[in-house]
């Protein structure tokens, strides 16, 4: 009976260790997945911010070009009067 109890306790300890290992591995995998999502989100936000900056600069450049053209036209009209 003592031998059976000792074997049972040993099995119980082994099972507990295995379960803890599986749990630890699952927690680590979940943490890594969350970190990857966070990194990906950060990367996406940075890319979107950079693209918005490029588009804003392009719009400012076009507006400046139009303003320059308009000033030139107004200057030419004033010269002919």
What does this structure look like?
There is one protein chain. This protein is an all-alpha fold. The chain is built from one helix and no strands. The chain has one helix at 2-80. It is rod-shaped and about 120 Å long. The protein starts with a helix and ends with a helix.
The value of Rg in angstroms is 35 Å
Mean pLDDT: 85
Number of strands: 0
Order of helices and strands: H
- Multimer state: single chain
Low-confidence parts: none
> How would a crystallographer describe the biggest sheet?
none
- Secondary structure class reads mainly alpha
- Cα(first) to Cα(last) distance is 119 Å
Number of H/I helices: 1
Overall shape: it is: rod-shaped
Q: Name the helicity range.
A: over 70%
Residue fraction in strands: under 5%
Features:
single chain; 81 residues; mainly alpha; 0% strand; rod-shaped
Blueprint of the fold:
Blueprint: H1 2-80
Précis, in short:
This protein has 81 residues and is mainly alpha-helical.
